[in-house]
Amino acid sequence: MSSPARPGCAVFDNIGCLVTNDPSIGEGRLGCRTGSALVAVDGRVAWVGDAGRVPEGAGGSRVDVGGRAVVPGFVDSHTHLVFAGERSREFAARSAGGHYQAGGILATVSATRAASDGELGATVSRLVAEALSSGTTTLECKSGYGLTISDEERSLRAAKEHTEETTFLGAHIVPPEFAGRPDDYVALVCSTMLDACAPHARWVDVFCEMGAFDADQAAEVLRAGARRGLGGRVHANQLGFGPGARVAVETRAASADHCTYLSGTDVDLLGASETVVTLLPGAEFSTRSPYADGRRLLDAGATVALASDCNPGTSYTTNMPWCIALAAREVGMTVDEAVWAATLGGARALRRDDVGHLSVGARADLVVIDAPSHLYLAYRPGVQLVAGVWRGGEPAWPPTGGAF
Ligand SMILES: [Zn+2]
Description:
Strands 1, 2, 3, 4, 5, 15, 16 and 17 form an 8-stranded mixed sheet that branches. Helices cover 33% and strands 22% of the residues. The radius of gyration is 21 Å and the shape is globular. The protein has 404 residues and is an alpha/beta fold. It binds zinc ion. Residues 78, 80, 235, 309 line the site of zinc ion.
C-alpha cells in the first residue's frame, strides 16, 4: 500500500467521506467531502481536494483508502491514566444497586502510592496505546491519585512521557492524612505541591463537588495554578448541583468537565462563556447516573467537547467511538455534533488550534474508518471500525503498518 518516502509525508487518495471540521472546504459543520484526497507534508495537511486529482509531484507514501471514511484523530481532553489497582468490584456493586461516592478515589490513591514508577509508567503506556488503537491521537492526562508532593510529581512525570497535555490534579480529593483539615491540604496543594508539579504540567484541575472541594477552595487552587502559568480545568457538577460550573466560568477555565447537574443559570453562564463544556458519558454509564443534557448546552450556545474520563473507578474506557455512540444515544447530540465534540471540541477544550481538524496547516492526525461514513461510529457501537491511524502524517497504528 505504500512506498518508502520522507517521514511525515503521505498521499491519501480515494477517501469515501472525509470529515475535515472545516466548513470552508466541505459541507456542514463537519466540512464533509465525498470522493476526496488529502496530502500531508512534513506532518501537516498540505492539500485537500478531489480524489484522483492529487497535484503532480506530491511526494510521500501513497495510501489508497478504498472509499473508506477518514476523520480527524480524536482529541481526548480528559483522562486519568496514572494509577495502580482496579475497581471492577465497585462497578459490579453498582450493577447490584449501590451508588458511586467521591470517596472511592481513595482506594486508587493507596494502590498508586504503593506502586513503583515502573508500574505507573507501564499502565500509562498500555492505556495510551489502547487509546491510539481506537483513534485517539491527542490525549490529556491528569495526576490526582498520589496526593503527596512526590506522588503527584512522579505521576506527572509518567504522564509527560506520553503527552504534552498534562494536568496537575492534586486537588482531586482530601487525602486520609488530612481528614477533617481540608484547608490545610489546600494550602499544601497551593504552595509546595504546585511548586514541585507545575514544571511538569500545562494545566491545573480541581474536583469541585460535595465531598471534595468547595467553591472557595477550588478558586484558590485555580488561582495558585494560574500564578505558575497553568491553565484551569474544573471537575464540575458531576454528582449533584453545585458551584463548579460557575467557578470554571468566573476563573476563565478552559473547560468545565462532567456538568451532569446544571441549573438554568449554569447553562446560561456556560453558553455565554468561552469555557468549553466537556461531557463524559462514560462516567454516567459506569456510575449508572443520569446523562448530561448536551442538547440544552448546545442550544444555549456552549462549546461542547466529548472525552473518555478514562479512570479505574468510574469510566474505565479509552474508546472515543463508544463515547460518540453514547452521546448520540443518551446525551441529546446528533452524530455530527458528537463527532465534532470528540475532535475539534476536544481541541478547543485544550486550547489547541493544530489538532481536531484537517484544514491545510493542521497536524496530519487522521483515522481511517472501515465504513462509508463517520455515521457508522455511532451506528455500529462497540465494533472496532478503526482501520488505521496516522499521526503527523506517519502511520501510528496498527503497529505493523496495516493494509486495506
Ligand atoms: Zn475526571
